[in-house]
Amino acid sequence: MSPTPRRLLRWRSPLRGAWLTSVLGAVLLVGMPVVILTGLLSYIAYGPQFGQAIPADVGWLKLPTFDWPADPAWLYRLTQGLHVGLGLVLVPVVLAKLWSVIPRLFQVPPARSIAQLVERVSLLMLVGGVLFEIVTGVLNIQYDYIFGFSFYTAHYFGAWVFIAGFVMHIAVKIPRMRAGLRSRSMREVLRTRTADTVAEPFEPDGLAAADPDPATISRRGALALVGGGAALVAVLTAGQTLGGWTRHAALLLPRGRTLGDGPNDFQVNRTAAAARITPDLTGDRWRLTLTGGSSPVVLDRAALTAMPQHTAHLPIACVEGWSTTETWTGVPLRDLARLAGVPDPASAFVQSVERRGAFNRATLQRNQVLHPDALLALRVNGADLSPDHGFPARIIVPALPGVHNTKWVGRIDFRAGG
């Protein structure tokens, strides 16, 4: 049974039709693969081969892994910034696309053939998946750990539901999208005023209204509205990367705005208080233990500061999308590896004095340990690290996800190959 005009009376906008839906779909067809690819790259950057990516066990959804590059230093900043930033910018386009196809979501009966059943299943996975990813992603950016489940696990598996629906939907809809794009000229649409805007011809299985209302906005106006919404979202997120006074405009990335004083005034996810770091853990009794050689090497902060220091201007980027570039000074990790008796380590296992937390430890790859700018940082921007930024010592490695730049380091185990 086809949807009758009576059922479509509630959806009377004259803008709905194959052309507008196809234009919005074309934008998503270009943008969404970038969001998907950068999201999967973020998972690989976390080092699933070391069991430190979340979720650790993904079954047959396991991705091919490789050593995440340490050059260029801004690599993770770029990939994760694109994932979060572009994902947020596309939200107005996603909502507009859902508005444009809403009559089809309530079609009765939902399927009258195998092809339509595939289309409906793909639509359910596509819509459900993208809404779940958007809602949980935005909430995770805004608030700390508000879910009663692991955000990372849910986001990973939710992404695969969306990816499957996205691929199926493209396979079914690409011919219709091409036809829809060819049905009108973009130049003609951009020249058409509201008063001259007319509805597309009604088809029982189409999107156009059976009895359309008069236009209250032109198609070019609708595109401008969606584009303006995307531009506004971009403005409200870009400040976390641009820095300076624009950081205060980053309303959609509140943890990317400001924290600290003077040289330590830059972003942080977990404060020392939240991590339960007390002065007795990081004060005069603090020691760094290096293992991996014939016997442990124990150093206090004075011994570390007496070693040759290296300074590097490096970004640090978080999975939530914020990033910052600061000037770090400390002891190169490769010097510490030699001191520990492992001059050519295959990896390094770093532990924080923080007793709890999903990221109080990290395994670093060989290329990350031996990179000349990979540091056990003691100072930032010419000043000692603040407690919130990891005093007395923290890891800073080029292109490494922020949470693996372990703070409040207490032990490093350099592991030889073999």
Automatic annotation (TrEMBL):
InterPro entries in alphabetical order: Mopterin_OxRdtase_euk, OxRdtase_Mopterin-bd_dom, OxRdtase_Mopterin-bd_sf
TM annotation in the entry: 20-46, 82-102, 123-143, 149-172
MF annotations from Gene Ontology: oxidoreductase activity
Keyword Membrane part of the UniProt annotation: yes
Keyword Transmembrane helix in record: yes
Domain Oxidoreductase molybdopterin-binding: 279-415
Protein name: Oxidoreductase molybdopterin binding domain-containing protein
Organism placement in taxonomy: Bacteria, Bacillati, Actinomycetota, Actinomycetes, Mycobacteriales
